[in-house]
């Protein structure tokens, strides 16, 4: 056993260092060893410097303060009446982040006052960022992932102005600072904001609200096209659906709903064209969307935005339509 151990030790040494003899050889070997030690020390020193610089940068980032306008906007996103944190969640987060509870008030104002107090007192944004991290922990939204996505999107629309965003893991990460509102909205991928910018009919937004805020284009299209049928049934009292509903509501002489006086041939042609437009919208978008597997429907954000704008146009024309006197209808 000792012989084998000695042999293994010798083999290991001989594989690392050349055999030398004499004083000059030993001096050379000693110099090489010293050089290797110096190289290792230099590497460790550089690595330590890099780690130290990264830590310093992180500390410097946390030590900065947020402008009052951004604190307020972040608080409004977190304390949104419909999509924000609950009062009990705010209570717990204020305690966990060692903030002073400002007392009763609206949700977003409570959050803002807590943010402002701790930032003014400590002259840094550390506690504010910790509040955001804890509020956006994905584990809190296991039963309602759509709520997480909604809150994350609303929050990112504000954080982008500070060069940060919450990623899909709920982590605060640095990013390029947004400079304009349109830039922030685009990068936050807020389809609802895009539709508002286009002036889309309120009925479309109301009917698709939950789906749109989850960026679920497939179901947004389905719900939007359903809203056309809902309005036609409400206006006419009919119970039909799809093409049959369109034929009974918008066709005929006169139709149940007319989008113009129907006195000129051009007006009657416009009425027929509008009926075909509505029927085509049902046929092209609603039927495949409702009956085909979602994986086979390639619906992009641009397609969804254009379709919802089309649905908005249909809503406006139906709103402005009138019911002609059908007692004197021509055969």
From TrEMBL:
Database matches in InterPro entries: CHP02391
Region annotation (Disordered) ranges: 1-24
Sequence ranges of Basic and acidic residues compositional bias: 14-24
Domain Conserved hypothetical protein CHP02391: 198-318
UniProt xrefs under Pfam families: Hypoth_Ymh
UniProt xrefs under NCBIfam families: hypoth_ymh (TIGR02391)
Record's protein name: Conserved hypothetical protein CHP02391 domain-containing protein
Organism this protein belongs to: Hyphomonas beringensis
């Amino acid at each position: 056993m000792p012989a084998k151990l000695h042999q293994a030790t010798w083999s290991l040494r001989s594989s690392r260092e050349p055999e030398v003899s004499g004083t000059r050889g030993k001096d050379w070997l000693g110099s090489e060893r010293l050089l290797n030690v110096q190289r290792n020390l230099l590497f460790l020193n550089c690595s330590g410097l890099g780690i130290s610089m990264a830590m310093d940068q992180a500390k410097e980032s946390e030590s900065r303060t947020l402008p009052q306008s951004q604190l307020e906007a972040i608080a409004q996103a977190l304390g949104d009446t419909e999509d924000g944190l609950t009062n009990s969640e705010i209570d717990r987060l204020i305690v966990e982040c060692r903030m002073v509870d400002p007392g009763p008030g609206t949700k977003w104002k409570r959050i803002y006052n807590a943010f402002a107090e701790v930032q003014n007192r400590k002259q840094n944004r550390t506690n504010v960022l910790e509040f955001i991290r804890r509020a956006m922990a994905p584990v809190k939204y296991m039963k309602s992932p759509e709520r997480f996505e909604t809150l994350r999107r609303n929050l990112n629309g504000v954080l982008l102005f500070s060069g940060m965003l919450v990623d899909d893991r709920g982590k605060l990460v640095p990013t390029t600072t947004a400079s304009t509102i349109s830039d922030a909205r685009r990068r936050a991928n807020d389809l609802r904001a895009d539709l508002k910018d286009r002036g889309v009919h309120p009925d479309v937004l109301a009917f698709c609200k939950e789906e749109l805020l989850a960026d679920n284009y497939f179901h947004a299209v389905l719900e939007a096209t359903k809203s056309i049928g809902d309005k036609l049934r409400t206006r006419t009292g009919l119970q039909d659906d799809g093409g049959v509903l369109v034929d009974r509501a918008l066709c005929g002489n006169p139709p149940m709903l007319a989008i113009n006086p129907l006195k000129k041939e051009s007006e009657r042609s416009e009425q027929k064209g509008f009926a075909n437009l509505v029927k085509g919208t049902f046929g092209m978008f609603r039927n495949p969307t409702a009956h085909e597997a979602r994986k086979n429907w390639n619906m992009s954000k641009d397609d969804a935005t254009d379709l919802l704008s089309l649905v908005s146009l249909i809503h406006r024309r139906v709103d402005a339509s009138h019911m002609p006197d059908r007692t004197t209808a021509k055969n």
